Each structure stands twice: as structure tokens, then as C-alpha cells.
Amino acid sequence: MIKAVRGTRDLLPPETALWNFVEEKVREVFRAYNFQEIRTPIFESTELFARGVGEETDIVSKEMYSWHDGESIVAGLIKGWLQANPTATAYRQSTGLMIMRYEPDFVAQLNDGLVVLDVKSRPSKAAVDSLHEYTQFLREHTTDRNAGPIRSILVFPSRANVPSSVQEESERLGVKLEPVEYEPSQSLTLRPENTAGTVRAYIEHKLWDRGLNKLYYIGPQFRRERPQKGRYRQFYQIGAEVIGPASAGSESPARDAEVLEMLATLLDRLGISDWTLELNSVGCPNDRAKFNEALRNALEPVKDKMCADCQRRAVTNPLRVFDCKVPEDQPIIETLPRISQFLDEGCRAHFEAVKAILTKVGVPFTLNDRLVRGLDYYTRTAFEFTHGALGAQNAILGGGRYDGLSEALGGPPAPGIGFAIGEDRLVLSLQQKAPAESVVRKPDAYIAPMAAMNGEAARLARELRRHDLVIELGDESFRLKKSFEAATKAGAKYILIVGENEVKADAFALKDLATGEQVSVARADLAAKIRGERKP
Ligand code: AMP
Fold first, then answer.
1. 225 lines ligand 1 (CB under 6 A)
2. DSSP element (H, E) containing 238
3. CA dist., res. 23 & res. 262, Å (int)
4. Atom 10 in ligand 1: which residue has the minimum CA distance?
5. Residue 400: CA atoms inside 13 Å, Cβ hemisphere, count?
6. 235 in ligand 1 pocket by Cβ < 6 Å?
7. CB of 423 closer than 6 angstroms to any ligand 1 atom
8. What is the pLDDT of residues 400-425, one digit of tens each?
9. pTM (global) more than 0.90
């Protein structure tokens, strides 16, 4: 049996009703704050994440699903050649030169060979010459007298035209020219998060022309983490970004507070009331340089007593020491300097303003100066919402300001703030409160057609569905007993019987499956009757 890949899972009904419930509420709340949806591709160039998330992070250094897309010409040629010559080996040279042979130690024993020069553009006379030269070299150094011919091939994209001088030169030297259709190979990655993609789109489409952008996304993300409850390799994030030129107000503490207040509202509306907002300011790059130095100094005498990860972090990225969960390290971490002691005047004032607005609108928060986002372009406000019921994986969402990200990706300055909610964890929290069934809308009625009544039943179903009723349509081959069983299993409120007599009378037997009460209702009154009965 083929199963879903480790770390991935199927979301099945009725659980998907909870996912729909969450997404509907999210869209409703985000709309009230004037956010609009963005959908970026599921895969992007690997470089985007290397630059946009950071080479140093766990995500980029060990958790990405990356692959090379598109085949280099030479790779294609080798594959064909190796298939035809199973005992052969191929060598690739950094110059794009390819030598293939049968025996080990090719210089001594080359008895049939192919030399390929792969040029990425229009072939030049120099390319033909160097290929020929190399082929000659191999011929001269072959000691085996029975050595077979060595073939030389120059491959190039078929779009590139060949100058006649190159054509002539290659004929003279016996070099075969071989145009190949190809798409240059590139490294691609399944997105591990959606901020980098959003900022890429902001730059690519010059979204600064629109002033302040308030964008949100809902979709799958991929990280090769060790799967456990609440942690998957394909998981879903709901996120939003406020980004734009500083002149559009993107840097204002009012935006930070608005985003945080929106999140508090969303969680409350979803019925997740026991959340905690942990808040910190990580300052600007200037503050952090000083802080990093202070941390390095403070870690120097103690780092040997810490876990292996922290010893590495102490050297590469001391800020990340604060991510450490090893209990023995905690007393040491408690003594380390905190970023809050290093904030410059601007950052301090910005943070004070965010806190003042939150207090004013009544959103409670806890200051946590251990909360750091480890990337260089993260600035100022950093936050996390946690939820006790989730246990070890208790962070439902995280976010912060990233005023330097656009520039890190080659765009113009574009301050921004955003967050990502783990939708899987959000749904998990909700499940602990209410079973998925409670949000599933069950059929209002099950239509049971008697013999030869499928057509009439379908007509009636069509009419009732137009009234926004949920109708399950049965089949004329079912005996009445089987229809009742199917209606009960589907959780329908009523069963509606469509027989020859009913059609003639234009009135149908409607039975309440809970009370057993049965009445005959005229076609024109059916929808109202079914809906009316639904009211408490
Ligand atoms: P991050 O992008 O790492 O800041 O994560 C934001 C949120 O996404 C976290 O707070 C989690 O709720 C969720 N999340 C991150 N990684 C996973 C995962 N592997 N499985 C499920 N949820 C995740």
C-alpha cells in the first residue's frame, strides 16, 4: 500500500470543516482591516530563501526541500551515452568539458572516448580550438595501441546561431557541432515560509506604487523537520504583511499595534481566548551589532559549559542562544545581557509607542526580552502568541518587523511588519474545544426517490438547493428502508419521499427523522417548511 509521505497527512472531512471555519473567519477579520490576498508560487528559486530567510538559519541550512530543475545538456548526453555503454564512466570538468571512457585510468587506456564541450551560448572559434586541443592531448597520451577513435562534440543551445568561421573550423578539425534544446538548470525550493515570496513579489511588481500594501496569504509551507504532534513537513500558514515605502507610514508603531490588535481579535473570534502575547523589541542593526558583541563577550567564558548547539551559536550567531531549550543551559542564559539594554533612542521610542497603543486598545501583552528573531534584517517589534493547550509546540504564531528585508533581496527600502500563524496548530487548539462535527452543516433533507423517480427527485433537489438548503439526493434503486438508513447516516434532518403519487399530487411526504413526525407538504411550501423547522 502506498501511504502519505512521512510528515505529510490527508485532511479529511469532518476535520476540513474546521479548516474552512478558520479560513472563513480569517478572511472576514482581515477584510475588516483592509487586507487583501496575495498568492505566490509554491516553489521559488533557492537563492530567494538563502537571502530572504538567511543561510545561517535552521530552515535554510537543513530543512529545505530543494532540487535542480532542468537538465544541463551535458547531463543529458552523458545519460544517453552511459545507457548505451553500461561499463563506461564519465568525468565532468568545471570547464564544461566532459570525458567519457570505458576503463579506469583513462589516459593510459583510452580505447574509445567522447569529449564534449558544453558551451552555454553561441559557439566560438576558441571553443572549437580548445576542444580539439584537448582531444589531441588525449590521443597523444593514450598508450594503448588498439585505442579507438576519440570523438569530439561541441554542444550549445539550439537558439544560438553558428558563425560560418566556426562552422569551417570545426569541419577542418573533425569536431561535431551539436545544437541542443535546453533550459538551464536552476536550484528551486519548496517554500518554507511566505514572507520572502511576498517581498519578492512586492519588488518584482513595484508594489510601492500602491503606497502601503496590506497583504495576506493562506497556504502550505514545507520544512524537513522531525515530525511530531503539531509539527509537520507540509504544514499550513496564514500570514499577513504590511509593507511599503516609509512615506506611506509603513514604519509607524501604529502599524505594529494594528497588526497585533488584529491578531488578538482573530483569536478571540475563533474562540481561542487563553492566548498569551509575548512581545519584545530587537532594535535596529546598529543596536544589534553592539548587543552581539556584548553577548559574544559574555558567552566566551561560559560557552564550554553549554550544549553543542549553543557552542556553535556562540561563534556563528550568538543571538540564537536565546532559542535554546536545553534545561541545563537556562541558568547561564538568564545571566546574559538582554537586547532591551542596547536599544537606541529611536527604537526605544518606537517600542514605547507600540506598547502604549496596545494598552489603550486593551490588548494584554507580556514582555519577553529573550524573544529574538535570529535574522539580521529583523528589526524592532518581535512577537509570538502562545497557547497553553498546545504543550511543547505551543507557539501558534510568530512575527515581527523586517525593515531591511526588501533591500536584502535587492529592492528599495520598504519597512514592513508581518506574522505567520501555524494553521495546523490553530485547528488543533480548536479541536480541543469543539469537535469538528459541531461546525459541519448537515443535510437539511435527504430526498428518497421511489422506483423510476430519479428525474423527478433531481428536479425537486434542484429547486430546494436554490433556496440555499443542503440536500442529499438518494437513488431510485434503494428500497425505502435503505434510503432511511442512508438519510440517518448522513445526519439529515428530514427525509423527503418522491413517489408517483406525490408527483401527481404535487405534494410530498416530509418526515422529521428525529421526532418521526410525517406531514404532506405542497411543492411550493417545501423550502419554507424545511427552513422554518430549522429555526430554534
Ligand atoms: P515561523 O515561520 O517559524 O515563525 O513559524 C510561524 C508559525 O508556523 C509557528 O508559530 C508555528 O505555529 C507554525 N509552524 C512552523 N513550523 C511548523 C511545522 N513544521 N509544522 C506545523 N506548524 C509549524
1. yes
2. strand 234-243
3. 15
4. 397
5. 27
6. yes
7. no
8. 999 999 999 999 999 999 999 999 99
9. no
